Amino acid sequence: VALIAVGVFFPVYLNLMTGIANVDRKLIEVGQVHRLGRLALVVRVLVPASLPAYLTGLRSGLGLGWMFVAAAELMGASDGLGFLLTDGEQTGRPETVIAAILLFALCGKATDLALAALGGRLVGWQDTARP
């Protein structure tokens, strides 16, 4: 768990800090003109303005998290998908290996789609190019 947490922390943290640093100064000034206090400025200006960058960090961290889960399970799991993958490899069952890989991919894609849908609801105001 610590391996996964350390691997996921940095992309999320760096994207969040970049998002906060890139908040338009004019938005902060407008908040100050409207006499927002420090907490209100954070809640009403900084958080919404940095949310797209934070969600980007969460999505990239999620992808890395799944890679670290697979790596951690391959290193020494006694059950789970990593064990299934290793067991299939050692016993010469390619269908088991492929099934485990597909399950990892499906879990990763499902969680990414869920986070993307949540992000779409949270930052629906943002102008984005949609395919």
Written account of the structure:
By secondary structure, the protein is mainly α. The protein has a single domain, classed as MetI-like (MetI-like fold). Helix 2 crosses helix 3. The longest helix has 39 residues. The model has no long low-confidence stretch (mean pLDDT 89).
State the CATH superfamily name: MetI-like
Structural class: mainly alpha
Q: Could you tell me the radius of gyration in angstroms? A: 20 Å
Quaternary organisation? single chain
Number of domains: 1
| CATH architecture verdict | Orthogonal Bundle
Mean pLDDT: 89
Order of helices and strands: HHHHH
- Count the beta strands: 0
Main sheet: strands, sense, barrel: none
* Molecular shape: elongated
Kindly state the percentage of residues in helix. over 70%
Distance between the termini: 36 Å
The residue ranges in which pLDDT falls below 50 over 5 or more consecutive positions are none
CATH class: Mainly Alpha
For this structure, the CATH topology is MetI-like fold
Share of residues in strands: under 5%
Tally of DSSP helical segments: 5
